[in-house]
């Protein structure tokens, strides 16, 4: 699919051979290792950048294990090194388990913060943009308690999320994107009647965006703003505010981009399906969508190249 839509697209898996090879054989394909991510695509061949992370016998589909969590991070680290070394043009990440990674003793709350650490970016400038059903929603905060998210929201953070969205959309060929900023409280606080957080946080952020020449609107309640078809992207204040509309409309086909890190990085919009792991029945729509996101970003770049996918 991806190679047909984008002729320069050459997927290379990053992961343990002991995981990839049995699955490739089940699909009637063979595995070919590559040392740097560069490979010429061949029919019925899976190109693999091997990362021997899982101990012998540790591959356990459907179980949450510390070994799998450690391997998740090892795969991403290797993919980023490949990207930085010129062996790939983008990364597509498959489902992961925060529980498994943390069980390995690694602090992990999702791809954006880990990617920021690996590329040396500030974590408060790297954000998740969930995409699906015609919606693009950037999350100012992500995987943390609602109490912590509200405490951490500042005009600077909201401005940073919107600015990252603008830069991403401009790179994708939208010269003057229109950005909608959701309110924090019901009715965006109703002028302070339902809390002053929007007066202190989202309103100054929008004013700063407009002063910089960005077409930003808000804060407005998410329920009203989402009904306006004129926006290119929205900024959500917390996880469920941004995830619910995309997941409701796009279902499992939702995909995501991590923006603000200076690299092309996409991922699926759902978690790991432990109940069907290893059965060969998973819906590939989200992975296909994530591949298309990276392919679309590549369309607006000058030089073609291969892509890495972490297994």
Summarize the structure.
The chain has 311 residues and is of the alpha/beta class.
Q: Can you give the helix content as a percent range?
A: 25-40%
With helices defined by DSSP (H or I, 4 residues minimum), what is the helix count?
11
Gyration radius from CA atoms, angstroms? 20 Å
SSE run: HEHEEHEHHEEHHEHEHEHEEHE
Main β-sheet, spatial strand arrangement: 2-3-1-12-4-11-10-5-6-9-7-8
Distance between the terminal alpha carbons, to the nearest Å?
18 Å
Biggest sheet layout: 12 strands, mixed
* Strand percent estimate: 15-25%
Number of domains: 2
**Assembly of the depicted chains:** single chain
What's the topology here?
Elements lengths: L1 H4 L5 E5 L1 H10 L3 E4 L11 E6 L15 H19 L6 E3 L4 H6 L7 H9 L7 E6 L2 E5 L6 H7 L2 H17 L6 E5 L14 H15 L3 E6 L1 H4 L7 E4 L2 H12 L4 E5 L5 E4 L16 H15 L7 E4 L1
Parallel strand pairs: 1-3, 1-12, 2-3, 4-11, 4-12, 6-9, 7-8, 7-9
Antiparallel strand pairs: 5-6, 5-10, 10-11
